[in-house]
Amino acid sequence: MRKFGLIPPPSKEEHQRARIWAAGALAVLALFMLMLLIGSPPPEEADLMPPALRTAQITVFEDDVPACRAALAGAGFATERLPDLQEGRCGYDDAVELTQSVHAYSEPVATTCAVAAALVLWERDVVAPASEKRFGQAVTRIDLAGSSYSCRPIAGRRDGRLSEHASANAVDIAGFTLADGRRVTISAGWRGSQAERAFLRDVRDGACDYFQAVLSPDYNRAHRDHLHFDLGRDDMCR
Fold this sequence. Notes:
Helices cover 37% and strands 20% of the residues. Strands 5, 7, 8, 9, 10, 11 and 12 form a 7-stranded mixed β-sheet that branches. A 3-stranded antiparallel β-sheet has the order 1-4-6. A two-stranded antiparallel ribbon has the order 2-3. Helix 2 (54-61) packs antiparallel against helix 4 (113-135). By secondary structure, the chain is an alpha+beta fold. It has helices at 12-39, 54-61, 65-74, 113-135, 186-189, 194-207; strands spanning 78-81, 85-87, 90-92, 96-100, 104-105, 109-111, 139-144, 170-178, 183-185, 213-215, 227-230, 236-237. The longest helix is centred in the first third of the chain and has 28 residues, at 12-39.
């Protein structure tokens, strides 16, 4: 009988039962973790990166090209390393050509590996669903606005600061070709039909999740006919 509301200490049998219960719980937890481990795909077959880690991982890829190329290959994309280039103040080291992506391109995509990783994620997670949503069909080709690498300063600046294109750290998108052959260009579509305007703003806004700077016709006249993506030092989404 309990007196004065005090609880008597557990008996020896109760101690033993508690230990058995704890051991059983640990065994079940260990079995569950083992099943998860066995059921998980090996790293080389896993997706490019978990959604919550994408931004941070792309930043890591800027300094770890082998990891970047391995991740792209593991996700089903292909790259080829380009010879290093030095051209005055311009040039690049460890750049790649994206040879297999979600969509075909109008010309070779030669960029840093981190830009290539951001680009394929944008294609897969932004462009593909946006085209199905707005047009009910897939994009079959992405048209570039010139070469990704170009030794030149930023247009419109007087200080001579080099463009991110001068280190292959940027890419310009001019438009998209749909499965039915229709072309949706930045120059005509930005103020085109309702579907074109919605699609182009979808792909512009979605790019801001993967690139440091995203510039469109809303930024200035220099970008009236293309979308500019880069992984430089300026944080912009316009």
